[in-house]
Protein 1
Amino acid sequence: MTTGDGRELRVEWVGDPQGSPVFLLHGMPGSRVGPRPRGMVLYQRRTRLISYDRPGYGGSGRQRGRSVVDGVKDVVAVADALGVGRFAVVGRSAGAPHALACAALLPERVTRAAAMVGLAPRDADGLDWYAGMAGSNVADFRAAAVDPEGFARMLIPRSAEIRSDPARLIELLRAELTDDDLRVVSDLGMRSMLLRTYGEAVRRSPYGWIDDALALARPWGFEPAAIRVPVLLWHGRRDVFSPASHMEWLAGRIPGALAVLEPAAAHFAALRALPEVLRWLVDGDEGGAGGRRARAA
């Protein structure tokens, strides 16, 4: 589809065409193709799962200088193009702040929102943003914050490596993966979905990845405390890519947020938890989408 300002967005949906619409906002690097439950599973649960490539990823044109809050306009454009009025939204990892932006700015359209293994704002008051974070993420986000052009120059060849061999990204991260993460990425089905989404993410350019990191290193453009729709925050206690302290900070500021903390899980466990989170979004289950309820704030 084409946005009002002339950009291309590549959109895909799976599941029941008459089912409850849910937007799935991908991670970094990521794309519209997953990971996600199979279409038949979604159909059985009467869910229509809608995803799109954020600008610069996959088949979507770049949007220079975009911020997290800019993603809200693209979600609205996709929903309008598909004839969707009200919808739920879930974001994983870098997609989580974009899901929260939709919850904050679209209370008349968003029914529920879930943020899985997400980050807190870079300017979060009282949060040691880098504490507990893997060294690779610390280096990338610091570079993005203080030297955006240098960060882009660094990421371009890394993107090219992954374009030619998507498995290279998993190998680059392997030393920092917990045992739980290694179990997830070693599962043949999960690994296949991850490699597919990584390859599609950088198929055309590195700029989706670059612009995502730059957006996360700057102010988001909205206040989490302004959210008034039901929100689920799902996190693994052992996550080193998005430390659990980020979820705890958000839980203390989003009114009524349901915070679910899985004690033994890490970052990639969100892929396992997604079906239950979708159930919470669609069915309104107050039980908390599995795991252990940490606290409601």
Note: The chain has a mean pLDDT of 95.
Protein 2
Amino acid sequence: MENQVMRNTPIPIKLTCLSLLIVVIIINSYLLFKNGFQYSSLLLSLSILTLCSVCVLLIVATFLSDKRPLQFEHLFNEYPIPMWIYEKATMRFLSVNNAAVEKYGYSRKEFLDLTLLDIRNEEDIPLLVENAAERCNGDEYRGIWKHRKKDGTNFFVEIYSLPAVYFGKNARFIMARDMDAQVKATREARELGIRYELLAQATNDAVYDKNLLTNVVTWNHGLHNLFLYNNHDETDLVQWWQNNIHPADHARIVTSLDACKRAHLNYWSEEYRFKCADGSHKYVVDRAFIMYENNIPHRMIGMIQDIDKLVKQARQLEEQNETLREIAWINSHEIRRPVVSILSIAGLFDKSNQDLHLNTQLMEWLHESTLQLDEIIHKIEHKVKALQ
């Protein structure tokens, strides 16, 4: 391509010079054979002027012919993106610019002893050969490839390829733009996306992604599994989530989240009750990670976990513990009172049965204490049944 530009630019000027030179030759030939012609002096003057014009044009043409190739060569060599020209048949480098020398680590002389295969990994060579045969066949081509530097480092580039003729050889002109950071960032983002999808599918928890700028929310299947909601339009808004927080918890949760965002904290976690589609409420724990741009919260990714059974079991255990404490208190205080009374009354009995009045009174007291003891025993039985 460079060679074509160098050859085509001065052609119109050279053709003009050649035409004028032919005119001079004809005029001088005419004067040579017709010296007697009366206008010979005039024609001689015209021929001299024409010859001078030819000389001037030849000088200008020579100057332009020498200058323009140098400009294109300078542009090619100093362009900041690696570029080269290679022979299509052999894939050998024919010319490289300074950016390619700096990027790949080879000197210009070393480059001219290499082929395209030398800047690729061995496992990529078959695909390169196939691509060169099918897609680099006289047409423009663009694609992303992995290249290798002289030190063995691999990096990704975006190739721009055009057909060219270089000193009569069928060649291709290449521009290789470094895309390593972009390709790796794209791959990392794709892997993170896959992990997020796998996590969302693997858990029964309600996983959400909230856009805090547009207030749009995306849920996984856990929204239906836990709370019986279907993913319809209403569930796609942050306001819907806030409206379904239990009224007794609403102010506390909203205040906590606002305080977290004002403090530019990344992690937020709270327990509250959330309304299900059937109108009941479940205890949940909500854990989220908040992302910021210029100190403005813009995205919140989190997971709502159902802890309703755990909370109710904890409350049940607490109630059981309270009942056990009451039973222990009854055993240590209430039962002891009638038992002490019974023991004391039994010690007062007249075993000789001479004082019938006293024994009768003691029997009444013993009966009352026994009734008290029976009442306390029934009270304990009732509390024990409540534990079951």
Note: The mean pLDDT is 79.
Protein 3
Amino acid sequence: MHTVFSTDGIHPHNTFRRWREVLGDQLVPAEMRSVGDAPFQGRIQASTIGPMAVTEIANGAMRTESTADHIRRSGRDDQVVAVMRLSGGSACQQGDRETVFGAGDLVVFDPRPGVSEAQAGCSLIVTLPRERFEALLGPSRLYTALTVGADLASTTLASTFIQELVRVGDRLTSDAAARMALIGTDLIVASLAERMAQGVPRSIHGTVTVQRAKAYVEANLSDPNLDPRQLAAAMGLSLRRLQELFHERGRHISDYIWERRLEAAAQRVADPACAHVSIGTLAYDCGFASQAHFARRFKQHHGMPPREYRIASLLNGRGGGSDL
């Protein structure tokens, strides 16, 4: 991480004014005020891993309020922000939900007005594409300002992964950084999905369950044994009940699993960074038991065999030569 701003060396009368200016540029403009009588101290560090922007903020106690006008001026309504509290605590309100969270907890906020009061401490703030979250979890209002506790193993896993990713980020190639950022995003999604399954209103329980199932599929695509029965067991449901939930949304479980495998395989086949990897290896990595089965399914879904798809992708400018 590189240091964006520090109050060290700034006259105490000017520290919070400068802090407010820099933090507004780095994240979202907002009304901010220092809380307490002690001179304000803070530090902002930042890192970018692929499409993921990570900001570490260490600050004194402060209150922040974002209005609709602030958010509109920021031009960031296509993003969500995941806050991982490393020390201290915060109380926040967004929409009709209020939350209190402390060290080890995770909370996601979407681009809507909100208010927060933070104790002195440190947080990791991860800016992520809103589209990915809504594709897997549904509308952001379902999980914004929902505390995902440190007691969940998935929360610890997501937080640890992001911190380690920041530590080694400058040693990753651009392609590797993009893939690792996607893994980090999906770990946060999986943590949210697990939390949403705890005590949600019954009217949205079916939607949450299906989104949890989809997140599980994403995390286990490489498992050749992943099938509707295993997925139902992982969700703690009977196969019949999970099938009903998918059917209510116009999907079949097995079709969804195969579609996600084929889409993931197509991304890897077309990825220049995977050009040296054999088609068979890519097939196995995406959960296919045999290359023949993979080739047949791939052609049915994408209109051409995987080798032709790879060549066409490379010739269209997405990569150089490959070991075919």
Note: The chain has a mean pLDDT of 87.
Protein 4
Amino acid sequence: MKCNRVYDVTVREFALLTNGGNNHSIDCHSIPKSAFEWLLANGVSKSEGQRELVKVKRHGTSVALQVINFVGVLEMPCKTRIEILPKTSTDTCDPVSARKILLKMLARVEKLKLEEFQQSQLQVLKQPLYELLITHFLTAVSKLVRQGIRNEYQRIERESPYLKGQLQVTKQLRQRPGRQHHFHVAHDIYNANRAENRLLHSSLKQVLKWSTSSANQKLACELLFVFNEIELSSNHALDFRLWKDDRGLAHYRPLKPWCELILSYQSPVAMVGKHNGLSFLFPMEQLFERYVAKQLQRQLPPEFKLKQQASSHCLTHHNGNDWFRLKPDIVIYDKSRIVTVMDTKWKLLDASLNTTKDKYNLNQADMYQLYAYGEKYLNGQGDLYLIYPKHVGFTEALALFEFKPELTLYVVPYDLETDQCSLLMACS
């Protein structure tokens, strides 16, 4: 049975979702039976090509679903909306702080204009993530409307009872008998029905369906009135290709990433049947990797070049072919010379687990991977970096790891609140 109102649930990565009950913590939350069954049918991987969103876990005497490392918002057909926040600490999570960090990362990586969230009031940041994103989008559209919606000349070809514009002689000569008094003409009209405005109109219609905030709904309706005479986009891909970036449309530029996010972002969950619910889902490992790379790029001297996912080396050669391509997250070049290689890992290390058994929760495969990067990209000489998020259990760089005297590894924390990472600055 589908419920009529939106049921909001806020959890963080790796939280448990139980089928009914009274659990309401950020690490274990109850959801309606209809939402649980839909996630069980659609979120659990059943084939190699299907992206997995949840895992089935034992919870006491019953079964629960554990969300994995996607963050964002997912809406089920029964109108249950699950907001998944990043797990930035091992202790109790503050949703406001986690939401603010996630917004900052999205602003940098997805090129969304979210400068004002830094000064947002606490009450504003208590809203669900999707409402915050909708608020920022509507604010950006309001600013564009104040600056002026742009028109353009469009060529119109039509049959007219009077002569207007250019007569299309060939078509006119082929006119059927009895219709010679109608003219085939072509002329230009100046209106706002252009690709950019069609995409904005479609985005506004979409967020109006998603929003549950009366303030957002009111503003969306007011803006839709402004775009009322403009058609909806019938082909998003084509209209995005037609989006112009000239000087006269400079104030449209910040809106394009918003429209791409609203109209084009696909859920990682393979849906069964048609479901057009709200879905903003981001793999947290990729988001962390891209965010650190973009922040570091801003800090590098101009002569240095940063490249993400470089693939210029492979692990081995076999029968004249390259096998097992090596793709570090970040490679920094000084002209053609490689300065250092870095990899990011979205995992919470524990500096107190400094025993040969626990090894700070480091993954042995990651260490092998960094050693291979050092041998192939740095020719066995230089410094490597392994970057993890900073939290209360991992506040300072670990003691130096030595693969061999000429090849060393730094395991360093990245502070997502202050964007500080001292050893990263040393390489710049």
Note: The mean pLDDT is 85.
